[in-house]
Amino acid sequence: xxxxxxxxxxxxxxxxxxxxxxxxxxxxxxxxxxxxxxxxxxxxxxxxxxxxxxxxxxxxxxxxxxxxxxxxxxxxxxxxxxxxxxxxxxxxxxxxxxxxxxxxxxxxxxxxxxx
Amino acid sequence: xxxxxxxxxxxxxxxxxxxxxxxxxxxxxxxxxxxxxxxxxxxxxxxxxxxxxxxxxxxxxxxxxxxxxxxxxxxxxxxxxxxxxxxxxxxxxxxxxxxxxxxxxxxxxxxxxx
Lengths: 115, 114
Prior knowledge:
- The complex is a heterodimer of chains A (115) and B (114).
- In chain A, strands 2, 5, 6, 10, 11 and 12 form a six-stranded mixed beta sheet that branches. Chain A has a four-stranded antiparallel beta sheet with strand order 3-9-8-7, with no helix packed on it.
- Chain A is 0% helix and 52% strand.
- Chain A has strands at 3-5, 10-14, 19-21, 24-26, 32-39, 46-52, 60-61, 64-69, 74-79, 88-96, 104-105, 109-114.
- In chain A, strand 8 and strand 9 form a beta hairpin.
- With 114 residues, chain B is mainly β.
- In chain B, 0% of the residues lie in helices and 49% in strands.
- Chain B contains no helices and eleven strands.
- Chain B has strands at 4-7, 10-13, 19-25, 31-37, 43-49, 56-57, 64-68, 74-78, 87-94, 104-105, 109-113.
- In chain B, strands 2, 4, 5, 6, 9, 10 and 11 form a seven-stranded mixed beta sheet that branches. In chain B, strands 1-3-8-7 form a four-stranded antiparallel beta sheet, with no helix packed on it.
- In chain B, a hairpin with a 6-residue loop joins strand 5 (43-49) and strand 6 (56-57).
- The radius of gyration of chain B is 13 Å and the shape is globular.
- Chains A and B meet through strand 5, strand 6 and strand 10 of A and strand 5 and strand 9 of B.
């Protein structure tokens, strides 16, 4: 079974600095998708970024980018120019590209942004 | 666009009581899901419905039942609540057949069972 690991339960970053959140996953599939979700104190789950495993180019969405290392099964999230509004729980998620495959979530990393 | 709407936002139950969590989506998605979120465990899938008329067990189905009422609505029922079911519950939906389609979540229900 696929598993997703986020080894950092908590992280902190100074406002305007850069922080990287780690995610590793275990799978025997070659075709799959990876996602990062943000959960602010409002409890809402917000999609931050997604990556197709067949794409070598790392996905980027404004201040958010990923470092996807397929061989290492690593999918880290980099947040540049951190803002107070980035404070949240961040969840990494995996989904195989097979019909009926569901999402597998990591345990989450709580990010604090210090003013 | 409302997206995914789930009710209620908060609920307190006594052990043994029953309740139904309601979920509706207006994005014409075929697939709908119920997750529970517990500290340090991420989101775990309770039940899902790949399409109207079908439901399947997820990772933690014990103590729950679901009904896919129509394409828009997917409810989760606790027949006899237990303290172990204290959690935050999320309903979500996605487009079927596209594995890169993300999950769209409701705002969650915080359930406390005493």
